[in-house]
Amino acid sequence: MSPETGFAVVGLGMGKHHCKAIAxxxxxxxxxxxxxxxxxxxxxxxxxxCKAYQDFTELLQDAEVDVINIATPSGMHAEMGVxxxxxxxxxxxxxxxxxxxxxxxxxxxxxxxxxVKIGGxxxxxxxxxxxxxxxxxxxGRLGTVxxxxxxxxxxxxxxxxxxxxxxWKGTWDMDGGGSLMNQGVHTVDLMQWLVGPVEAVMGMFxxxxxxxxxxxxxxxxxxxxxxxxxxxxxxxxxxxxxxxIVNIYGSQGSILKQEGLLxxxxxxxxxxxxEEEEMLGYYGGQKKGGSGSADPMAVGFDGHTQIVEDxxxxxxxxxxxxxxxDSARHAVEIITAIYESGRSGREIKVGSV
Length: 353
Ligand SMILES: NC(=O)c1ccc[n+]([C@@H]2O[C@H](COP(=O)([O-])OP(=O)(O)OC[C@H]3O[C@@H](n4cnc5c(N)ncnc54)[C@H](O)[C@@H]3O)[C@@H](O)[C@H]2O)c1
Hints:
Elements: E1 5-10, H1 15-24, E2 28-34, H2 38-48, E3 51-53, H3 56-60, E4 67-70, H4 77-86, E5 90-93, H5 101-113, E6 118-120, H6 128-138, E7 145-153, H7 179-183, H8 185-195, E8 198-206, E9 217-224, E10 229-235, E11 245-250, E12 253-258, E13 261-267, H9 274-283, H10 302-317, H11 325-344, E14 348-349
Parallel strand pairs: 1-2, 1-4, 2-3, 4-5, 5-6, 7-10
Antiparallel strand pairs: 7-11, 8-9, 8-14, 9-10, 11-12, 12-13
Helix pairs in contact: 1-10, 4-5, 5-11, 6-8, 8-11
The chain binds nicotinamide-adenine-dinucleotide.
The site of nicotinamide-adenine-dinucleotide has 23 residues, from loops.
């Protein structure tokens, strides 16, 4: 038996990043890849010298596979995950864990019943700057947090929504929405991870510049359990060039960031501004590397590598993975509530949809 944990990846769009991540994670070995599309499957299997399965059911029977990374269209995640759990496979599930909160619950229950570990993917939670911001908020350094505001002025070409691998995007039944559920879910998760759970939302959405079913622009008001209120704006319509913005405002401090870069760190307890200078020196500056603002494949795979490595350790130490599905679920609950509000024109309590 190999001392390394055997991984397989199903779905070879974003799944190609998973392959790279597995290949570079200590203790992990890419055993197999799976995709219904042989044009994607064969070159990846060849590149990594691993087994190729066109049929997910056959992959589930491979005894060398300990963990399956699910990177298929979002509306398939829970159903495939439940089948994999029943076959005794541990799982890493791409964001969103699924597009319906109750389906995520079914997957969580299957994981418990079948005694397999299931981790989610929100790589923003692993970003060192985001960790520093979360610590500052949790340590009370912002005083009363009054507002949390997220902007995602992104761009996708019409062709992104078309063709063999595009037509599920921007649909309700497979993508669970559009700019908010697909692209914006990271921003929603980051905001709730930094500031805490969201209790109620009001939203508006529509289709503005693409020929798609669901939405390519959404705005929402959020009421957080901690008392803060906030705004959220996601789109794939904006002329390209701008990145995600997340700003958190409090009575004793405010923190502003743009993608991976710090734009403001003003805290009352940093009286001489030394920490501000240090933080801006370290996390400010100019953007290095790409972001997903106009190119979906421009996201790095470092976060995925850490998530794979964490799964290897979680199995060795028999503990939960660092991003549990329980914690990944709330973002989907918030998003489905925003859509329900947009449809009904009412404020919606999160968790009531
Ligand atoms: N973490 C991130 O930053 C990030 C970035 C992009 C996409 N994603 C997520 O990754 C997932 C996939 O997105 P994508 O953009 O790569 O989509 P995609 O359509 O490019 O890739 C999905 C792949 O799944 C394959 N597939 C579909 N049904 C299958 C089946 N039954 N068995 C085997 N293979 C099957 C398709 O042939 C396709 O190659 C989505 O859930 C998306 O939200 C995450």
